[in-house]
Amino acid sequence: MFPVPTQVFLTRGVGVHKQPLTAFEYALRDADIEQQNLVTVSSILPPRCRLIGREEGVPTLAPGEITFCVMARAETNEPGRRIAASIGLARPKDPTVYGYISEHHGYGMTEREAGDYAEDLAATMLASTLGIEFDPNAAWDERRKLYATTDLIVDTLSMTAAATGADSGDWTCAVACAVFRFSPVDAQAGAAQPGGAPA
């Protein structure tokens, strides 16, 4: 049985190459997680899991380590085609309650549109878990204001990698990840509280 992650950081990257697998590798290099054996997991932010910056999280990684993450990945070899991969995060105010991480990947969206969409997904899942009543047809900006007034959600955010297909027809890959870390010190001291900001 694996321990529960105590920290998470967000990262993103874009890579271009004539081979799709190498474009993916280059995107991981751009995200600074290419030396990891990545295992993708689904979308729960554990209770008391502290958000840290990429600059704090990357140095804790060891080459070849099994590393758990929530990943969004988009790729294309169509010149000029817009792609985006986005991670959304919604954290409850109560640190003993779990939050949500969403992943979104698609075509034709701008970086902001994809980020808002992923953030909306995560916030909506958390709001429904907390019993917050909302209109699912309302615009994201309206629901964001509602969530802020409930005093149940501490914040929502997103990180997005966006790109357009290379003019050469080479593969372009975009990745965004929420990377989990395990810190015995945080776990023992009870210091893993919501806070921090993505790089």
From TrEMBL:
It catalyses: L-arginine + H(+) = agmatine + CO2. Keywords: Decarboxylase, Lyase, Pyruvate. GO terms for molecular function: arginine decarboxylase activity. SUPFAM superfamilies: Pyruvoyl-dependent histidine and arginine decarboxylases (SSF56271). Its cofactor is pyruvate. InterPro entries: Pyr-dep_his/arg-deCO2ase, Pyr-dep_his/arg-deCO2ase_sand, Pyruvoyl-dep_arg_deCO2ase. Transmembrane segments: none annotated. It is an enzyme of class 4 (lyase). Its EC number is 4.1.1.19. Belongs to the pyruvoyl-dependent arginine decarboxylase family. NCBIfam families: pyruvoyl-dependent arginine decarboxylase. This is Pyruvoyl-dependent arginine decarboxylase AaxB. It comes from Rhodoplanes tepidamans. The lineage of its organism: Bacteria, Pseudomonadati, Pseudomonadota, Alphaproteobacteria, Hyphomicrobiales.
